[in-house]
Amino acid sequence: MEKMFQIIVVILAAASVAVADALIKHRVVKGGNFWQVLADPWMILVVVLYVLQIVLFAYVFVKQWELGVVGIFQIVFYSLIVIGAG
Phi/psi at 57 (nearest 5 deg)? Predict the structure, then answer.
């Protein structure tokens, strides 16, 4: 059960950063300069998603999960989500 929870936390962390990256890309494609992109209301969600990812990884490290395994899972899930969004 603990391993399943670990995988879910890593998937959520990867998903939050992947969705945040996709939202930034979506906003940039609309056009505008740097400050217009930052002023977009969707950027609030982007910041929340990045903060969520930081909180999840802080939890992972406090629980002393294996960094190598967590990193590999995070990269795999991040890649799958970004490819799917693309």
Answer: -75, -30
The answer to whether 67 and 10 are in contact (CB under 8 A) is: no
- The helix (run of H) or strand (run of E) holding residue 79 is helix 67-85
Q: What is the pTM of this model?
A: 0.84
CA dihedral 4, 55, 59, 15 (to 10 degrees): 20
Query: 29-71 pLDDT, tens per residue?
Result: 877 788 888 888 899 999 999 999 999 999 988 988 888 888 8
